[in-house]
User: Fold these one by one.
Assistant:
Number 1:
Amino acid sequence: MNTFKTIALATTLLLSASGFARAQAGLNDLEVAHSAYTADLIDIEYAKIALAKTKNPEVKAFAELMIRDHTAVNEGAGALLAKLKVKPQENDFSKALQAGATKKNAELNGLTGEAFDKAYAANELAYHQTVNKIVGQTWIPNVKNPEVKAFLEQALVTFKVHEDHAGHMVSALK
């Protein structure tokens, strides 16, 4: 399967599996916080799989970046929630994200070598495109708490860099 078809398939699966429409339905700030935290944890898990499987230095460096950056974002989010004295709320969207990730983890774990590297890169591109769209077009405009909104805006800057990096990685692995 060529890289474009892989990206298109990954994006389609992520959009349907994650319940993109539910993201539009108006999660409250605490549900957004839980969903964002879950999305970060998912990407950390994908990166851990990559570190265990890849021999490609670019893929390995990207996976290390994902672990570092997404861990930092989650630590920052945790600190903000502690400051605000609130707890994130699990919701249907975060559950759907996790269900989709379970399937993707199984798929990635079933691949090796170049096939793994290409699938991981394509998934990272599709994942960041989708999450960035949700964060930028749905969550940021609808979050009520200004500190949570500012945090998401800051995180989105990082995630857009990840999307660009993933796009370069996909191109390099053709």
Number 2:
Amino acid sequence: MSNLKNKVAIITGGAGALGGAMALGLAKQEVKVAILGRTEKTIQTKVDKIKAVGGDAIGIVADVLNREQLETARQEILQQWGKIDILVNAAGGNMKGATIMPEDSFFDMNLDDFDAVTKLNLKGTVLPTIVFGKQMAKQGEGNVINISSMAAQQALTRVVGYSTSKASIDIFTKWLAVEMAQKHSEKIRVNAIAPGFFIGEQNRRLLLNEDGSLTARGNTIVNNTPMKRFGKAEELLSTLYWLCDDNSSFITGIVVPVDGGFSAFSGV
């Protein structure tokens, strides 16, 4: 039986495809949801969608790399609901200059873009965890869910910046799980979900042609996924619920693949 009702969750990147699905999914479990993002219009669209199904949500414009904005968001959430139970660090992404195309060389990589991707994916997880995790430490309980990637577990061609920064998320998750349990409270847990391949706005053109057929890269991915398909955003929800639920109270410091078997398959 779920005991998520009336918990308070913050979803960074909650206006995106995966973050938005997780925000809506938690709201349907009667979790109070704060959606953080950089664009007011897209945030409000997600909030309206949650309210349309009877959920409780607020939207806050806050950049995950801006400590002042995050601290203001924390204050607003505490004024609204008085606590922070769950932080889902779903904000992240990639940049063209940190990607090595087949005709490009690693030695020509744009280091500014590499730095920007690293900041977004790594610092953009660490900084919200500092700001909102501080309240969890004060409460003596809380739950942090980071978003890793298949790119962190196996070498995927092209995405060097994204892969490197997401691999950092895995060790940060394990490190922080130990830190929180040892220094603050055994009731503060830190885990991560590693999605396989899901279609979002950032990777749509990389995986699908204009007519909806698979690109060469899309074909390679599907051929190396035993379930022979991409994931649906809603298929992340059962893992999210499990990790957020108090019934998983002895689980911390793990990275859970939700990938249709991609990480298990050798390709042979």
Number 3:
Amino acid sequence: MPSKSKKSSMLIRGFVPYKEKKGEEYMNENQRAHFAGILNTWRQELMEEVDRTVHHMQDEAANFPDPADRASQEEEFSLELRARDRERKLIKKIDQTLQRIEEDDYGYCDSCGVEIGIRRLEARPTATLCIDCKTLAEIKEKQTGN
């Protein structure tokens, strides 16, 4: 039995890393199912967070007579809404990625066509670029200031 620290390192964000079999074809049905499961779980967690935020804002919405208290509450709500907006965009990206899995277009770099790699996709399931193309894109972005 693995030690507690080793056991916890085997689970990354609630999933077990994919174990490739020798000679296994890249992005086969098992691998696509593995990533679809990761993405669907991630999407579900984000949707639950959205629901919690809505309920929290409804429960906590109070008309404080003190302007400072009201401002604090509005700032808190503003930060939560900004976070939910980022998550909404992420949910859209997850949906697009799930569509790519269905269309057998997942796991290959949009720029050069090379395999992105299982470990990179587990770290960033919505990745559309291999590490080399992503690195180049980030360098170009820094140079142009966009």
